[in-house]
Amino acid sequence: MPVRQSLLALLALVLGLLAGPVLAQDRGRLVEVERIAVPGLPDQRLTIWLPPRYDAGKRRYPVLYMHDGHNLFELKNSNFNKIWAADQAMLAAMATGRVEPHIIVGIWAPGNDRYRQYLPKPAHDGASPALRGRMEAIAGGPVISEAYLNWLAGPLKQQIDRSYRTRPGPRDTAIAGSSMGGLMSCYAFVMRPDIYGRAACVSTHWPLVMPQPGEGADPERLALHQRWLVDRLGRPDGRRLWLDIGTGTLDAFYPPYQAAVEAGITAKGWKRGRDWQGTTYEGAEHEENAWARRLPEIFGWLLRK
After folding, report:
1. Which residues contact 107 (CB under 8 A, 6 or more apart)?
2. Is the confidence at residue 155, as pLDDT, over 70?
3. What distances in angstroms separate CA 273 from CA 34, 62, 245, one per listed residue?
4. Does the model's pTM come out above 0.85?
């Protein structure tokens, strides 16, 4: 008996030592939803990240919706062999103690339909015939961002809230994206304040179409952003908006547009540092590695308790 008890004690010790690192290395888990048929839209796909210990308890979680979900988590799915590492950024933000664990819902971009799915419909509809023609040449079909937003804020959110332990209110629901996804995140934020109380618009593609070398800020597009975004913004009422740009590659065209939007937001009574944050990253290029480097900072400000 003493020998058997000693062996059992040794086995328990070994199992305990093995279990410790396993629990310590809990980095959350991914859930793949490979095809969702949505009327009026291309088929949609999701990659969902559930935070550490999600399966071990009954806690309810805030949710962050992110565009270009294929570029968020795993290199094997990415377009350019680069990712945002959104799960690692969330873990880093959580480690500060100022950000709660969030469920991240990554919505994949639908290939060639990405532009017309992310281009805010009011920006398209309010453009001059010449600018609208340039947009439509890129879109290759009808602009479907309104239908996309209706799905995001309606059936998709309802399904996520039914399927996972979420906190569904707007202060616990955020949306984020880069480039055209930054425009789409701003669009969702201003059109559906009842759903999205937080938004991050990263390296937002303010020119709307591909800018030409030497092109400066276009007065028409500056006025468009005032109308479709700033004029619809409303009061802060506890909401938070993050806007950022780099200064390299495509982002080099963005500063005058960003400055105009920031000025408009300030004029609407939004207080910088409390209600919104605008940041310029000198030398940062328009690509996933640059966004990954600043994502913990974005999460730390946008999602703080």
Report:
1. 44, 45, 46, 65, 66, 67, 68, 69, 152, 156
2. yes
3. 39, 22, 16
4. yes
